[in-house]
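Hi Q.,

Before the meeting this afternoon, I wanted you to have the LQXTBERG prediction in hand. No need to reply - just skim if you have a minute. The sequence and ligand are here:
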Amino acid sequence: MGSADPKALVRLNGKSLLARSLEAIISSGVASSIVVAAPEEFLTRARSEIDIISESGLKDSEASISGIRITVVAGGDDRIESVQSALKYAGSADIVLIHDAARALTPSDVFRRVAAAVRAGAEAVVPVLPMTDTVRRAQSRPAVNSDQSSTATDVPSAPLPRSDPNGRQNMVESGADSDPEFPTVEVLHGDLDRSRLRRVQTPQGFTAATLRRAHEEYDHDQATSSSGGLGATDDAGLVERLGVDVVAVDGDEEALKITYPLDLVLGEHIAKQRDGTARDTKQRDGTADDTRRDATSESGPRR
Ligand SMILES: Nc1ccn([C@@H]2O[C@H](COP(=O)(O)OP(=O)(O)OP(=O)(O)O)[C@@H](O)[C@H]2O)c(=O)n1
Ligand SMILES: C[C@](O)(CO)[C@H](O)COP(=O)(O)O
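Predicted structure with the ligand bound:
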């Protein structure tokens, strides 16, 4: 994102991603307690975001905000460590939802769908959306070598350069063995059947026992792994390693992960519409923007 502050403190229409995430959780009505994991040096600022929500008022949810215990704790160096810090404060809750503050515009309905599916008996639940792009596997091979099959190696799953949202540099010169003396190109193989692929969002919901077991198992495997970090980009992945089924429910395009500056432009637009401060709040048919959104967004995933 390139901002000096942690991303959760970046603002959309004047309100931080953290504050917007908390509002969505609170107004969903599914939480009895919320734990926020924040970078240690930003704990005070994270706490002040909670005060802002209280002051600005959550409309008719104000009563429930005082009924919901909100705790701010120091997170860790990565997502998994932060979740583990927060889990220590989850008390005796038997269902836990893990949410990315970066998905600050997640509609409350998504929280309700996830919580309902766990209550209905699933051990692990994630909101998902269909793939709209064609997806292929990437391999790198020497740029000048005609024998591609014997030298191709999987492109490492390191993130694309943050400075280039489209990762164009990676598309040309793979980072796998990017020695300038031996340039590589990236070649693509194999159509993956996109009708069977899903984009995974948060909140991800779990029975607390299963989530704790998944983290313990992950920690154990990390400690005993001879091949370095196991890599885990979400909690559902850890639960899946236990052999537990991860159940999908409908996600929502507005639960986008604010990752690149371009996402802020879209996020700002959505936030303004919701806050009723969009310049063009009146549509030609006379309905307000946020009224139109309510009619479409809470009814399931949109492409
Ligand atoms: N040490 C960390 C890093 C990330 N996260 C969580 O993982 C989410 C997604 O992470 P990411 O998009 O990578 O966010 P950041 O690392 O915060 O920001 P940036 O995109 O600038 O790298 C964050 O919103 C946050 O909820 C966390 O809990 N602890
Ligand atoms: C959990 C997640 O949002 C699901 O899509 C995603 O894996 C988080 O990834 P990040 O690398 O921590 O942004």
